[in-house]
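User: Sequence for Neuronal acetylcholine receptor subunit alpha-10 below. Tokens please.
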Amino acid sequence: MTMAITTTTTMMITMKQKYSCILMLLTIFPPMTLAEENNDYLALKNFIFANYSSRVRPNCDANNGSIKVFVDIGLRQILELNEQEQVLNSNIWLRFKWKDCNLVWNVSEYNGIESIVLPEDMIWIPDICLYDNSEYVLKGIKEYYRARVFHDGTVKYNFPSVLKSVCQIDIKHFPFDQQVCNLTFGSWAYTDNEVMVMNNKTDGDKTNYVKSSEWQLAELSINSYQRLYSCCKYTFSEVVFTIRLSRKPAIQLLNLIYPCMIISGITLIGFFLPPESGEKVSVSVTVLLSLAVFQLVITENLPPNSDSLPYLA
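Assistant: Structure tokens for Neuronal acetylcholine receptor subunit alpha-10:
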């Protein structure tokens, strides 16, 4: 009995010593409260934007060099390839990265804050647009989204967008055709002496791609170019994403090719029918009407294109 009381007393003394040590450590090193953390972010924000203007391109080079803007995309889904209007409708995750020398701070002076998320209207954003855009404006580039700024001036501006782009359709090998659609991104106002639009890899991101029931994604490559346009004497840089799509012909084979082959086979049967059967003319007329209907169906599913006619037609 005495031994049990002694053990309990010893445990209580040990626990009191532990609590005393914890209280002493908290007194010496008080934890950062939420208010103090918010004060650090507020102080950092005030420091960054003390003499900052989001309307002026950062001049990070003594020789007034260009700002390198790296463009990348993650292809989420091919929503539709409208062959009549020759428009590609795709769900894209856009990713931009550049360095702004006016957004630099010392991490040790702000309790280890390495990055901060800011509204896009507070910082300078390059005017990157889609040259192959089929809408009036490219929505989402500078609306509703936020950028993450790192302490060394690196800015990452990522956001999702549904793009409608021009895509020239080649129907010569329909329904075993391949279509190549380009997404060309570049600055509309800045020349490559001011903003250099670049790619840092050769393939786009297909990690989160949702497969299409009609098209097989054969290629998603990236290339960068410098072009001289007739409007200006300076060159402009651009990044081109090439999307190569192969049509899945199963539906077309089932609904078009196989019935057409069957009808063509029935045409041969008409030649072997004896004249006295009385069905020779009716079978031939029925086959002719069926082929005319198939011609209308194929025409409705293909764009009006005089440059290349499908072999199936």
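The longest strand covers residues 87-104.
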